Amino acid sequence: MPLTPTAAFIEGRWTDLETRFVVRSPVNQQMLAEVSDCGTREAEAAAQAATVAFATWRQTTVYQRAAILSRWADLIQVHAEDLARLITWEMGKPIRQSRAEIKTAVALARWYAEECKRITGESIPSQFPDKRLQIWKAPIGPVFAITPWNSPVSMVVRKIAPALAAGCTVILKPDEQTPLSALKLAELWAEAEGPAGTLQVLPSSDPAPLAERLMADPRIAKLSFTGSTAVGQKLYAQGSPTIKRLSLELGGHAPVLIFADADIAAAVAMTIHAKFRYAGQSCVAANRLYVDDAILPEFTARYLEAMSHLKVGDPFAEDTDIGPLVSEAAVQKFKAQLQDALDRGARLLCGGDAQGLWCSPTLLADLDPQSRIFHEESFSPLLPIQGFRSEAEAVARANDTPYGLAAYLWTRDLGRAYRIAEALQCGIIGVNDGAPATPQAPFGGSKLSGLGAEGGKWGLEEFLQLHYVSIQLP
Ligand code: NAD
């Protein structure tokens, strides 16, 4: 277990609190650390420090901020193996996937270090010869960021790198399961000479009071939240009195549409990855497989073959594909959704076992459309497969969800690819692509999957506000 700070990081100082909470690893149930447990008092101190630091940070040049971000990216790279091991200890992701997450985090930090140099304004023509109309872009102010446990490093970087690059200060509350990797990122930010108060990290075992305090604080300009829809809805309501700007990256329930003309080998390989990485605990996981009736038997057989090669086991072993789920509650959800589908007449094609926190990759067929698994996020290696007869039916099934984050489709017909992609109600679509997310592209959803986007220039815009300046020449 790599050494990491366990104190809160407030105003550039490590603040060791008497109240602490225990972080346990899903890998062996052992205690990883006792971490300072922040509440409203620390929230108040952090809000004050973020406000003071913002006054200076917003005036740094983008080149100064880019240099710090770039040093931070280098340090994340230097500490890549420690950070990857931390991720695996904290939430059980197989080590190869944790290393891939660090690569993504480094790429995101580097991308925003460059992109902030392209924050430009505009000049618009006036109908009066002696007037100049200008639009400037300014950082919106101190930001409150809340992140989940499933990608505890890349998700933090995807949120805070654009905020810091824009000139905002950030108060980060990481998930209570994964505070250590976030504190490590803060340590590296300080080492990269990020000024005091620009990034603060407040771990908390009971986030509601701390969050309510910051949501009510008019000095906090924005909330950027990634997590469940239920918590996002609460925070949305809390933002109303201060008209907080909000970015919400919430739950997903991605459908996968496989058409008869698809490259089946590629579709199998990529959807296996898109579903089973992180044991299915990804907001863009391929959660519902819909396959053209004409190829359903062949596709199912090949999919089962590929699933049989997935190795479930020790997440620190180099060849493990599926580690433990994050918690006993996650295993209970896996079991409940499986039982519900079976009770409604589904056929278990493979898997179905759970030992401790390890659940086997599970494929279900012949499901009742009312089954919970079609309507709730699974966040586990449980997957339903269902046939369809027409494009219209495929699209109707894909869109039959309150979520709208990601969707995937496989076809060799360009016209069909456009028709389906245009009809899908979601923010991210992979056409013959099981891994569309990349630093320069937007990542965000519609419907109950959220508001706004992270990634790319859009992720930076979320932290900028327009200043329109009309100048009457003398
Ligand atoms: P969660 O909503 O329970 O927790 C997420 C974060 O919110 C944690 O930091 C948690 O401490 C905090 N939180 C919980 N209650 C809070 C409250 N009352 N006030 C303020 N903060 C509170 O989410 P989870 O179930 O642990 O995480 C998985 C969820 O996150 C899934 O729904 C998944 O789809 C979603 N997610 C979305 C994206 C995306 O980019 N759209 C990415 C990853 C995960």
The percent range for helix content is 25-40%
The Cα radius of gyration reads 23 Å
Bound compounds, please?
Answer: nicotinamide-adenine-dinucleotide
Q: Which architecture of the largest domain per CATH? A: 3-Layer(aba) Sandwich
The CATH superfamily of the largest domain appears as Aldehyde Dehydrogenase, Chain A, domain 1
Mean pLDDT: 98
Count of individual beta strands:
24
Q: Structural class of the helices, strands and pairings? A: alpha/beta
Distance between the termini: 67 Å
> What are the segments in which pLDDT stays under 50 over at least 5 consecutive residues?
none
Class of the largest domain, according to the CATH hierarchy? Alpha Beta
Main beta-sheet annotation: 7 strands, mixed
